[in-house]
Amino acid sequence: MAAETKQIKTPSKLRFTIIFLVMAVLYVFSWRGVEADIGSLIEGWPYIRDLITGMWPPNWKYFERILDPMLETLRIAIIATTFGAILSIPFTLLASRNVFPNTWVTNSARSFLNFVRTIPDLLLAGIFVALLGIGPVAGVAAMTVFTFGIITKLAYESVETIDPGPLESMTAVGANKWQFIAFAVVPQALPAFVAYVLYAFEICVRAAAILGLVGAGGIGIMLSETLETFQYQKMATIVLFTLVIVIVIDSISSRIREKLL
Amino acid sequence: MIEFKKVRKVYPNGTVGLDNINLTIHPGEFVIIVGLSGAGKSTLLRSINRLHEISEGEILIDGKSITAAKGAGLRRMRRDIGMIFQNFNLVKRVSVLRNVLSGRVGYHSTLRTLLGLWPKKDVEIALEALSRVNIREKAYARADELSGGQQQRVSIARALAQEAKIILADEPVASLDPLTTRQVMDDLKRINQELGITTIVNLHFLDLAREYGTRIIGLRAGKLVFDGPVEEATDDVFSEIYGRKIKKDELLGDVEEA
């Protein structure tokens, strides 16, 4: 009996302690670094109060002016998500180990995808404004790359979880790579893929709303304009409108996604 | 004709899967491979269509080496070998007919199959294959609406639509109940007799092996320990293959026909 109890080791608490300490150090480090100070929040309160009271009541007449830029934002999001989704198909397949067992292929595809995803959306917009000039075209280009990164990452991870059975049987019937993909991979991966495209669209609408800050079209330009010229009532209209649009799109798309998965 | 010549398979971890297998299977035979799990039954079967690669030796199909085949040549050889799996391996979200038609991809151009432009003749072949296993009426149902036994018959139909000369069945009844087990085995046997398709089946039910096989092959730790007509496969032979007495759960037992 004594020997038996010895064999069962109590799980070590060392790991937990180390993780806890590392987290604590990280917090202190970050806190110091940004010089976060509760005091400044209290000191700044009058300004915050002015901003909020200044926003009320929202300027409802301004709604007419922002309708077109808002539509532009939505158009940017729709076109960019579509392009991003189309581009993501080949890369999703190239990054999936059950489709391409060759690790050289999957690793190169994944490195490329990791690189794409490290670029923040606003930086992307800035780059494309510099390349293509101010306007919605730059916004579409930036958001295409942005949604491409999101969709591909989520999609290849879900492709790798599909049932390997049909993959095996398509190999056995003598299918080539294209047929293997069309008959065994696509039908299994399609519902998840569509769900991820919708999810990317949700994120894209939110991201596209601030693209105007760097001149890439859409509602964002109005937002920065009103903020800089202290027209808080107009800004409130923009914020509320954006909120409504995002909530509507999110609820519709999450309902469709629930049905798909 | 399938010929194994000095076939050896060693897994990366050093386990010997197949040990010096020499074997000839003639056209039209109904061969049943028995042995304990891990004896190499599945490895032997899957080495025939190269779902598993062998380490040494050669496997010839109708005189052509599948071991040496590459690319389009390999796919062309696989087209003639149908395979039936324990878990059916159908695409569950698509129709039965599309699953059966997927057996015919090797006959047409990539573009044509990708666009789903099947010639009328192919659809007829697929429906005919479904008739042969008595589930033609399920052609347009989604594969996951079917019971396990029906799904296995769809996978048999896929092998038929493939116009395979050889059918490999890897534990085809292991996930079925006793009654559907008999129906599936009856289908395989009938197809073997009516169409003369060489059939090789892995089984762990010994009474089924005796009832359906014409030839029994026994594997033990990767070695061929028995090869003979079903009449010679006595209880003693099975005990020898298994290295112990036969247990009750290795027999399917009698099933009352419904």
Written overview of the protein:
Chain B: One of its GO terms (molecular function) is ATP binding. Chain B: This is Phosphonate ABC transporter ATP-binding protein. Chain B: InterPro entries: AAA+_ATPase, ABC_transporter-like_ATP-bd, ABC_transporter-like_CS, ABC_transpr_PhnC, MetN_ABC_transporter-like, P-loop_NTPase. Chain B: Keywords: ATP-binding, Cell membrane, Membrane, Nucleotide-binding, Phosphonate transport, Translocase, Transport. The complex is a heterodimer of chains A (about 260) and B (about 260). By secondary structure, chain A is mainly α. The longest helix of chain A is centred in the N-terminal third of the chain and has 33 residues. Chain A is built from twelve helices and no strands. The model of chain A has no long low-confidence stretch (mean pLDDT about 85). The radius of gyration of chain A is 25 Å and the shape is globular. In chain B, about 35% of the residues lie in helices and about 25% in strands. The mean pLDDT of chain B is about 90. In chain B, a hairpin with a 2-residue loop joins strand 9 and strand 10. Chain B has a domain of about 120 residues: P-loop containing nucleotide triphosphate hydrolases (Rossmann fold, 3-Layer(aba) Sandwich). In chain B, the strands form two sheets. Chain B has a six-stranded mixed sheet with strand order 6-7-8-3-9-10, sandwiched between helices. In chain B, strands 2-1-4-5 form a four-stranded antiparallel sheet, covered by helices on one side. Chain B has about 260 residues and is α/β, with parallel strands linked by helices.
